[in-house]
């Protein structure tokens, strides 16, 4: 059995106005209500219900505001800390000591479930860096209307599922690198190109699978990097746009109906 690992939830706001908040009454995206509860509450409750997760830290620019959310009251081993200006620098400051692993997710990953978490944690075991991904056919088979950012590799197109496993402070060089390119996080080819011309050429020509591509990218930093293919398409549907929220509301309503049936 895998020992529980701590989790970090990135719940900060990006610079500039967020169109999702217009007219909502919420001060930050993490507190935007979906299916009757703030996004952050859905994510933290899924983590807390997961046997594979230990302590949970929530990072945000104004963490005290999130800590006051009633939906989070009484949850065990839940902590809050103020984050810095960027995702990578904030995460680097929150990593556990030594080589202890940590799971990282985001407050807008509202469809997260304990089953998804268990699947990812098991698949990520033994890696320095693991990334949860969903293959395009897996998502579109059930949700053809969903629009995601796709990375094209041999054997399929892939989208990130907002879950990562990082093995402690040995990933600091990678986070420093990510801090310089995270502004392009939605531009697949720019991200690939940043890891070097051979990775870009290989991706353009589809010379290798995404597993091989991620492994090559990790080697640049002396890390064992792996992809964990998620079996549920819902794992990559996060709340980025109003159309995403509409779909998420429908999925959550269906889940509730199935649970009460």
Write the layout of secondary structure elements.
Blueprint lengths: L4 E6 L22 E2 L2 E2 H10 L4 E8 L2 H5 L10 E5 L4 H8 L6 E6 L7 H11 L4 E7 H5 L10 E3 L2 E12 L4 H10 L6 H7 L2 H8 L5 H10 L5 E5 L12 H19 L1
Parallel strand pairs: 1-4, 1-6, 4-5, 7-10
Antiparallel strand pairs: 2-3, 6-9, 7-9, 8-9
Helix pairs in contact: 3-6, 7-8
What does this structure look like?
- This protein has helices spanning 39-48, 63-67, 87-94, 114-124, 136-140, 172-181, 188-194, 197-204, 210-219, 242-260, and strands at residues 5-10, 33-34, 37-38, 53-60, 78-82, 101-106, 129-135, 151-153, 156-167, 225-229.
- It is globular.
- The chain has 261 residues and is an alpha/beta fold.
- It contains 10 helices and 10 strands.
- The chain has one domain (5-260): Spore Coat Polysaccharide Biosynthesis Protein SpsA, Chain A (Alpha-Beta Complex), CATH 3.90.550.
């Amino acid at each position: 059995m895998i020992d529980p690992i701590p989790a970090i939830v990135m719940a900060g706001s990006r610079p500039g106005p967020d169109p999702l908040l217009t007219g909502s009454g919420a001060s930050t995206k993490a507190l935007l209500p979906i299916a009757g509860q703030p996004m952050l509450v859905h994510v933290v409750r899924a983590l807390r219900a997961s046997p594979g997760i230990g302590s949970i830290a929530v990072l945000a620019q104004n963490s005290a505001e999130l800590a006051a959310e009633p939906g989070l009251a009484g949850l065990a081993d839940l902590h809050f800390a103020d984050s810095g200006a960027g995702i990578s620098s904030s995460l680097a400051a929150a990593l556990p000591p030594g080589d202890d692993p940590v799971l990282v997710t985001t407050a807008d990953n509202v469809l997260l479930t304990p089953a998804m978490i268990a699947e990812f944690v098991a698949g990520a075991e033994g890696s320095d860096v693991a990334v949860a991904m969903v293959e395009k056919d897996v998502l579109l088979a059930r949700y053809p209307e969903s629009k995601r950012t796709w990375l094209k590799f041999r054997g399929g197109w892939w989208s990130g599922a907002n879950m990562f496993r990082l093995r402690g402070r040995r990933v600091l060089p990678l986070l420093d690198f990510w801090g310089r390119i995270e502004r392009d996080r939605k531009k697949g080819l720019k991200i690939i190109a940043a890891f070097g011309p051979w990775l870009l050429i290989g991706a353009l020509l589809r010379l290798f699978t995404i597993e091989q591509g991620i492994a090559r990218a990790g080697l640049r930093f002396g890390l064992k990097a792996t992809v964990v293919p998620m079996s549920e398409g819902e794992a990559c549907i996060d709340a980025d746009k109003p159309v995403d929220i509409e779909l998420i509301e429908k999925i959550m309503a269906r889940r509730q109906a199935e649970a009460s049936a």
